[in-house]
Structure formats: structure tokens, C-alpha cells
Write a structure and sequence with these properties.
The complex is a heterodimer. Chain A is mainly α. Helix content of chain A is 74%, strand content 0%. Chain B has one domain. Classes of the chains: A mainly alpha, B mainly alpha.
């Protein structure tokens, strides 16, 4: 029995709440069960549903934007299981096989790459005082995840276990690296813009701004050693407030 | 203090807090969105934009990977904006100094969000167990409902963090303002520059890209020289 389009849409919408009951023991397990339940109800009788449901309450964790890809493929496998066809791989094994790699790719691509990139671009608008900045950020950021959530689910459902090609064909790990590199470049430009704007406003000599690279690199190296952002922020603030007591003398040297 | 401002702030804190982990994740929880949103509702969008800009990059490098919980920058941005807007009216002060003080008080309190979030996730283990026992009793509807109850624990964590930052701010800011007003007058512009740059530096230090330093220095220098020449 094939699932109707309406049921699949219902599942897709429920996947937007995947992490609603995220917990330390089985992470998204309960959420995945919740999302797939409308489809499982169509495929199984009540007694079978209880047994199947217990399987879904096990450990599950993947990236929320790539979860529709997994869910689509799982629905396909469930259809085959309900029709008592031989499965090439069990559903639990399939989930276990793909969830962790998808999570790693999604984390690197979306959290590690796309988010700083979109934030970096949007912050240029914020620095210019443009009030549409939040909308610009939301548009820049959400386009790609939305495409992944929609097309991943459709692709997963149509291709079943072969849906892993979705990741391979699009070379997503490579894209994660490219996006991170682009984010670094944009943030470099943004930092230069902030420093230049500051110097212009205070009528200080411009070349001094290039020296801002030194504390930034030092702070980056300290952060790499594991010192928390909170500590770095508070230390920087304290140092600046203390220095400001003598700052008027220092700026006098740097005025144009 | 305006109670309706605080309640509107709590509503935004709840919605944005849920977007952080539990629902959608369309990033309305990012400080660059949440802070201007709450400030716009309270009638001072520029304050929110300034706060959003300073907080956005601070913890952007802390990824919500697996069981890792970053400090709650969403509630720092929202509560920081609410505090800044309210105290600017109380003290009748314009300018960035008060805004910075509100933010410097809110930032360490954002750490509380991590603990609340951890409690919520620990509490959700109980929901999982209840869902299992509901299934044992063949009660599928109640098993399903346990998942939705998880939203309640995340909501409480979000609003709890917002309230803690607000209470902390209401106690500390009136005490600190007379003491740090003068030093902040001299340093506010530099601090407003420094906070985003610290965030960028942390991203630079923790981003897993082999040529990050080279790319960053090249783009910084190129952009800087271009702006200088033009």
C-alpha cells in the first residue's frame, strides 16, 4: 500500500517539530516516532503499531534539515515492510547507517558554514543601520535549508535506501568547506569595514586599522586553546574600559 | 518600568526560544533577528539592531552539535534589548553607553540558559519513558502527546532564562550605572567595535578550515585597502 500525498505532507510538517522532545538518552528518537506516526497508522494495525512504535523510540539523531531525507527513505522502507517485501537492509540499520554521517555533514554545512556566511552578509546591512537586516538574514539563510527539507523528503521517498546518492551527487562535504571559506572571507571584509568606519568617525589615521589584525589573530588563537567566548568578551571589555581612562591621550597621537 | 513591555518581551522570548531547538529552526532565534524584532515591537528598533549586531557573532562558533548546548544568545539579545529600552526611558539617556551596560550584564547571565536547557533535556527523558509505558498499554495517542509536552519544557527554559536575565538586570544596572557611566562614555564606541570583532576572532579560531587565517587576513587587508583608496 502506497502512502497518500496527504499523509506524506502531514509527516513533512511534523518533521518541523522533530526536536520538540530532544533528550539526553535517545536524542530525537521520540520526535522521529511522532513525525512518522501518521504514516505508520496508515500502514499498520493497532497491535502491529505498538511493536513498530517501540522500534522508533530508540536512539536517533541527525541534522534537522536532513532528517526529511532520512524520513522519506524510511517511509519507503515501511511501505515495503508493510507489503511484506524483502528489505535489502532493516529500517533500524538504515537509520543507524545514515543518521550520524548526515548529522556531521549538516552540522558542517548549515551551522558551521551557511549560518556565519548569512550572518556576515546581513551584518553589513546592520552596520549601515538598515532595519530590514533581520529579513535579509532570514531570506539569505533559509533558502537553502528549505530546498533541502523539501527536496530531501521527496527524493528520500522516491529513492528509498538509494537516497544516500543525494549527498554524494551534490558533493555536500565539499560544499561545507567552500561555504566555511566564503564565510571567513565575508567576515574578514566585515571586520575591515567596521574598523575603517570606526577610524573615519574618530578622524584617526587609516593605516592603524591594519593593526587590528594582530589582536584578532591573537584572540582567535586563544579561543582555539579552549578559552570561552564569555571570558574573552569580558576580558576585552574590562581592558577597553581601563584603557579608556587614558584613551584621549592615545587618540591624540593618531588623529589625522 | 512598563509591564506590557516585559510581557511582550516574554512572548518573543518564548517564540524565539522554541525556534532555537524545538520547532522549525528558521533562525528567528538568532540575535540579529530576535533583538530587532523585540525592539521594533517596543518602538525602538535601532537599539535592537545595535544589540543584535554585537551579540550575533559572539557565540556563532558554538555549534549546537549532538548534546552540546551553547549559551543562550537568543535570550541575551532579547532581554538585553528590553533592559536597554526600559532603562533608557527610566534614566532618560540616549546613546550607546547604557545599551552596552545592559549587554555586559546580560551576556554572563546568558550562561544560565545553558543550565535551563540542560534541565529541559533531562526532563524530556521522563517523557520518553512515559511514551514507552503508554505504548506498553497500547495507548498510542498519549505516547504521541509526550512529544508535544517536550515543547513545554523548552518553553519554560526559554522564558526562565529571559526572566533571570531581566531580574539580574533590574538589580545590577541601577547599581552599576552611576559607577561605570563615565568610563563607558569614553569607551563605548571602542566596545561597540570590539564585541563583534571578538566574535569574528572566535569563529576564526574555531572554524575547521585549513586556510582560514590566510583567507581572513587577505580579505581583511584587501577590503581595508580598497576602502582606504576609494
Amino acid at each position: 500500500m502506497a502512502l497518500t500525498r496527504k499523509t506524506r505532507i502531514h509527516v513533512w510538517f511534523r518533521l518541523l517539530l522533530l526536536q520538540g522532545s530532544w533528550n539526553f538518552e535517545r536524542l530525537q528518537g521520540l520526535g522521529f516516532f511522532y513525525a512518522l506516526l501518521p504514516a505508520l497508522k496508515k500502514l499498520y494495525r493497532r497491535n502491529q503499531l505498538v511493536t513498530i512504535g517501540r522500534e522508533y523510540l530508540g536512539y536517533f539523531n541527525t541534522h534537522p534539515y536532513l532528517a526529511p531525507l532520512v524520513a522519506g527513505a524510511v517511509l519507503k522502507l515501511e511501505e515495503e515492510r508493510a507489503a511484506q517485501q524483502d528489505l535489502q537492509v532493516t529500517i533500524d540499520d538504515f537509520k543507524e547507517m545514515v543518521a550520524a554521517p548526515y548529522a556531521a555533514i549538516g552540522d558542517a554545512l548549515f551551522w558551521g558554514g551557511l549560518r556565519p556566511l548569512a550572518a556576515g552578509i546581513a551584518l553589513f546591512f546592520a552596520a549601515k543601520g538598515i532595519l530590514w537586516t533581520p529579513l535579509i538574514f532570514l531570506l539569505l539563510y533559509n533558502l537553502v535549508p528549505l530546498v533541502f527539507r523539501l527536496s530531501g523528503f521527496v527524493y528520500g521517498y522516491h529513492r528509498g535506501i538509494r537516497s544516500v546518492e543525494f549527498i554524494q551527487r551534490r558533493c555536500l562535504p565539499d560544499w561545507a568547506i567552500h561555504t566555511k571559506e566564503a564565510a571567513v572571507v565575508v567576515l574578514g571584509g566585515f571586520s575591515a569595514f567596521l574598523v575603517f568606519q570606526h577610524l573615519q568617525h574618530d578622524e584617526m589615521v587609516s593605516w592603524v586599522g591594519l593593526l587590528a589584525l594582530i589582536p584578532m589573530i591573537l584572540l582567535g588563537l586563544i579561543a582555539r586553546k579552549g578559552i570561552s567566548t564569555l571570558m574573552l568578551t569580558l576580558l576585552t571589555a574590562i581592558v577597553i574600559i581601563l584603557l579608556s581612562m587614558f584613551w584621549t591621550d592615545v587618540t591624540g597621537l593618531l588623529v589625522l | 518600568m512598563n509591564l506590557s513591555d516585559l510581557l511582550l518581551g516574554a512572548l518573543i522570548a518564548l517564540v524565539c526560544g522554541l525556534d532555537r531547538t524545538a520547532i522549525l529552526q528558521v533562525m528567528i532565534s538568532r540575535p540579529i533577528v530576535a533583538a530587532p524584532l523585540v525592539a521594533w515591537i517596543l518602538g525602538e528598533p535601532m537599539i535592537g539592531l545595535q544589540i543584535g549586531m554585537m551579540v550575533e557573532l559572539l557565540w556563532l562558533a558554538r555549534l549546537p552539535v549532538g548534546a552540546a548546548i551553547p549559551p543562550d544568545d537568543t535570550q541575551v539579545a532579547i532581554a538585553g534589548s528590553v533592559l536597554a529600552i526600559n532603562f533608557s526611558r527610566v534614566f532618560a539617556v540616549q546613546g550607546g553607553e547604557l545599551l552596552l551596560l545592559c549587554l555586559l550584564v546580560a551576556i554572563p547571565l546568558g550562561k544560565v540558559g545553558q543550565y535551563f536547557d540542560r534541565f529541559a533535556r533531562q526532563y524530556n527523558v521522563r517523557l520518553l519513558k512515559r511514551a514507552e509505558s503508554c505504548l506498553e498499554k497500547k495507548n498510542i495517542f498519549f505516547a504521541e502527546m509526550q512529544h508535544l509536552r517536550g515543547l513545554l519544557s523548552f518553553s519554560l527554559a526559554a522564558v526562565g532564562t529571559y526572566v533571570v536575565i531581566l531580574i539580574g538586570g533590574f538589580f545590577l544596572i541601577p547599581l552599576l550605572w552611576p559607577l561605570v557611566h563615565e568610563p563607558l562614555l569614553d569607551s563605548s564606541r571602542l566596545l561597540q567595535l570590539a564585541l563583534p570583532l571578538v566574535g569574528v576572532a572566535v569563529i576564526l579560531g574555531t572554524i575547521n578550515v585549513s586556510r582560514a587565517l590566510t583567507l581572513f587576513c587577505a580579505s581583511f587587508s584587501m577590503a581595508f585597502l580598497l576602502m582606504w583608496l576609494v
